[in-house]
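REVIEWER CHECKLIST
Item 1: Sequence provided? yes
Item 2: Single chain? yes
Item 3: Sequence as submitted:
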Amino acid sequence: MAQTEKKGGLLRKSSASKKPLKEKVVLMYDEIFTTEDPSKSNPRFWEELFLMKVNLEYLEGKLEALDGEELMKIKDNINCLFQHCIQALGEEHPIRVVNALQTLCALIRGVHQKNKSTSGFDIINMLVGFDKAELCMKNLMESLDSLLCAEGSESLKSLCLKLLLCLVTVTDNISQNTILEYVMINSIFEAILQILSSPLSRREHGYDAVVLLALLVNYRKYESVNPYIVKLSIVDDEATLNGMGLVIAQALAEYNRQYKDKEEEHQSGFFSALTNMVGSMFIADADEKISVQTNEAILLALYEAVHLNRNFITVLAQSHPEMGLMTTPTSPIPTTPVTPLGTTPPSSDVISSAELPLDADVQTSNLLITFLKYSSIVMQDTKDEHRLHSGKLCLIILTCIAEDQYANAFLHDDNMNFRVNLHRMPMRHRKKAADKNLPCRPLVCAVLDLMVEFIVTHMMKEFPMDLYVRCIQIVHKLLCYQKKCRVRLHYTWRELWSALINLLKFLMSNETALLAKHNIFTLALMVVNLFNMFITYGDTFLPTPSSYDELYYEIIRMHQNFDNLYSMVLRISTNAGQWKEPASKVTHALVNIRAIINHFNPKIESYAAVNHISQLSEDQVLEVVRSNYDTLTLKLQDGLDQYERYSEQHKEAAFFKELVRSISINVRKNLAFNTLSQELLLKEFSTIS
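Item 4: Structure as written out by the authors:
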């Protein structure tokens, strides 16, 4: 018997007969693509169509092959197909519903391809017709809402979410997507929350639900009242918020795990020797793939949750039992290949095993630890645009956290100590830290470590000025909280002071090159004012009196850098030019640092001369410092503990607009290549197939 091959909607017998036979569904599609109403010749046409296995490739190909004029000629049939798809969503037969959902995906994608050309027709009119749009879209959204909230098939829920993601990302700029007006009016917000609050639904559909919500929140967010923003900001249900946190933590933890695996792979065997010879280009490529696939969508969801909902702040510190010490869940593997869009799918065992064992002793983890670890990876390399955007978003999220009173309370809580194993960039002049020697400390120490790490590792030709400014602002906001609440944090402050002084040194060494692109005086002023904060208020938040003495020791020891900075800003502020004013602000800010240097240096020299010592030890310098505080005069500087609060709309709107566009394109691309295959669906509905 001759074998049958299937290709592009055609059935071909591998016998002498070369004439291809078309599948019945393809013949039915061809009827839709004529100007005649297909139900005239066959009254049961639409009923039969949704029993046929969908040929997505053929249907989309037909739509894309037509030009705008040809498509307008068959608009009535397209409208009819769209309306019958919506009607089929209410059918009892699950296979009809599956076929209707897949057909809708193909229609939306195909018509969108046409809309990108210059034909100028409107997507809504082409799909449903203006006169019926409101009612049709209302019915569609209600059907999707019912399917998402029903107890039924997880495969159907998966397809519903894919269809919604298809709808949302039909244009690169989602704010220009007029279809979304109907998604705003007929809200599916509660259905998304229901998915996130149920462990089973969350495990199977949580990622798509969270990405969908993040995108919907960004629809015309600055131009009109977006109901998804309003609703997200007032969610206070613990199970829902924790569910959202778990989905985000799982995706970030999976990224961390993949990165760690790659890192170990590169550090072992022949591959390691090879990369040592040819540099890090292979590593960069591998990390790039992971980074691009997992980055911005989930990070945007975390940002929106932290920024909009104050109740979500509590979720950051919540221990994750699902990611904790539990055994592997016994729930079945999803029946459909649910690939989260815009990322590589988290593996099915992530919840149980990926994040928790941060060290040999095994300790509980939480979303904030996972996020800090993730940030330490993506912020290592900011030369790549995706990572630069991710690094910026990580710092924006940390800015929101650093401004929040409740977040600060648990960040600084002495009873909440963790070992946080941050990734450190390999550098020639320092050894790789041993993970097991990490101390248990309040979480704020890990945030400060991350900031210090960034400051130390990004002094380079392509200087990321914007990220440095955000980094220093985060440190400042944390210090403001410590000063206000008199929190004496046991932290290795010397590492921060040393990093800040080295940053000033870098700015001075590269003055000409940097000034061609950046106002380095803004950053220098912020760094100097951090020192002023320690000098003026350090006695209220540094852990011990000796810590305050060490601050003075560091300033005196590194006095040459402050002297050079003063000379530079004095030179620029006395000449007319664009930097005159910002440079003069730094000059005034240095008054107390210079007073300390000018007060103690002569006394140290005198002590050395009297005692005939050529090189004083640290203890001897500290002795001079302690015995000469009384005669030191400092000026009181106002506003050191004040800061401008973060505002998205006024300062970050352009960044988020571009970020959301990039996510929208990425989600659509992944959806387009993710074949919504029916084989597994048919297995699930085996009674029909």
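Item 5: Key structural point noted by reviewer: The longest strand covers residues 4-7.
Item 6: Recommendation: ____
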